[in-house]
Each structure stands twice: as structure tokens, then as C-alpha cells.
């Protein structure tokens, strides 16, 4: 398995000169979801998405109030946490939001300095820096609040060699399904409420030292019925990209508004995961039961006129509903899952980049029409 702690990569050049990058961020450390049943969710992410068992914390490791399963696929690490008793902040989070992303943890060299730099620029404290230790070394953590109830945890694990963190033990399972070829998190999108996009764009610029990468307006992202606005924020080395969406007025309810209604506020809308071979990855995920948004076959009729020459056979893309978009630097292939839990909130994007550094703006209309069909089925359009 690829290590997440490959320090040679830290010498990456700064790609976005506008980003102050005072932290700096080395990459995504992990994403922690609060879920109703971590044991079964872990099975789902292993079976359907091809994640591997890594670590576990719970009653058997001396943790009394919760259980957490850690899963990994190449550089993508998920933590699934469920409370064991009644009351408390995790139950409150579940009651309010359903299954969803609580912590977007970022890998830093110094969690205390990251905390100081961001809080002095106005970040609200989620938790003060603290260090935990076991026989494998120590990890320092700190946390700041971002949109909704979501938290950015800063993780310094430079002096740690265990499976995940102190308090966790290795999770050995006899069930180790084949990976799906998911390599790393390409971007994670936040949905925020009406009129709040610029506030959070400003937060990432001012508090985190990010730069704005691309901007869309509501004319870019709308169909006959629904609309949204989106801006993309990136850190200096480009490893962390956070598009921020807000709903926009349309004839019918924006998909962002539907999300906000069911999540009861702002939160992570989708996690985009990169593959080097989207056709093989999508075949594998579909075989394992992952559900994708349906794209009308007419999307492919004039595809090559829209995107120019591509290496893939259009018939192979059409068969799988894979979308294509091009920008000045190349093209990308992408596909979106249906929501992964019961509420129409969090979903995944599978993306393969062939030079393009954008996010599939050219596909938004086809995609949103597909989402509108799902909204109509749910009676929420
Ligand atoms: Fe995306």
C-alpha cells in the first residue's frame, strides 16, 4: 500500500502563486464521517468501493463512548465513527445531519503552528492542540471550524509509525476485497447556504491562505429549472482543492438547497476521488453495487465536437455513462455516484485527469438535468 507519509513529495513546487500557503498543507490526512452504523458502513466501503481495513478503536481498545473504523485505498483514508451511547455531540451530529463528513483532516508538519496561524487570522476554535502517544510514537492534532458543523483537523504525524493514530489498533480482517483503483482525493466540495459562498471563499483565502482557482457564476451552472454558484479554492501546492457551492434562484429547487434542507445546513457535498483508469474503476464499482447518475445517451451524440479528440472510444464511455470535458490544458473524464447514504446529501465523484485542471464545467448542464430527474423522483424538485 502506498504510504501517506512520503516526505519526498513535500518538495513539490508552489503551483498557485496567489496562495499565501503559510501552513503549509502536505495533503489530505483523512476524512472522518459520523455514521449510524460504522461496522456496516465499513463493510460497504470495503465491498462497494474497494477500501482496505487499516485500524480500529472501540471497547476493545479502551474507548468507551464510540467506535471508529479506519479504511484506506492508496492515498485515500476514511474514518467511520459511531457513538455507543445516547446523547453527546456525535449523536447530535447524526440526528441533525444524518451520515456525513465531520472532519476534513489535513496533513501538516506542525499542528500547533497551523492552529496558531489560522486562529490568529480569525478561525473559530474546534479544539486546542494536543498530543497523543503510544508505543508507535506520537501525533499532534488541532482543529478549527469551517462551514456548518464541519471541522478541519490539522494532523502532524511526523513522529508516528503505527497503523493510524495512538488509541487505534491494527484491524486485521479475513475479508480483503480487491481495490477499485482509487488513488487520492482530487477535491472535496462544500455546499453552503444562500448568499454564503463569498464568506467561505474569503475564509479559505484569509484564514487558510488559499487562492481562488476558477470562478463560475449562476449562468454557467444552470438548467431550465435549477441553478447554483460555485468558486474553487486551492492551497499553494494544489493538493487541497475546495470548491464552494451555494444555491441560486431557478424555476425549481436547486440541488444545493435540497442538500441544505436534508443536511440541515452547510456540509460536504461530494468527495472526488482520482483514478488512472476510469473505465476499469467504474466497471469494478458498478459490479460491486455502486450506483451512478444516469446520463442521457444523447450526451454522446456530439461529444467529440464538444471536446475534440480523446483517447477513449466514445462507445465505451457511453456504455458506462462517463462524462468528458476539456479545458486549455487537456481533458478530464468524470462520473458521479448517487448519494451514498439515505438522505440525498453526500456522494462521490470518480475523476480521471488527462491534463485538464478544471472541474467539468461543460458537464454541469447534462449532470444537473440528471440530478433533477432524481430530485423529481424524490419529490424535492
Ligand atoms: Fe467535483
From TrEMBL:
- Please list the GO terms describing molecular function: 4-hydroxyphenylpyruvate dioxygenase activity; lactoylglutathione lyase activity; metal ion binding
Please give the cofactor(s) recorded in the UniProt entry for this protein: Fe cation
Please state every residue range assigned to the domain named VOC.
27-157, 184-338
What the entry lists under Pfam families is as follows: Glyoxalase, Glyoxalase_4
Q: Extract the coiled-coil ranges from the record.
A: none
Q: Which gene encodes it?
A: hppD
Name of the protein: 4-hydroxyphenylpyruvate dioxygenase
Residues engaged in binding Fe cation: 187, 270, 349
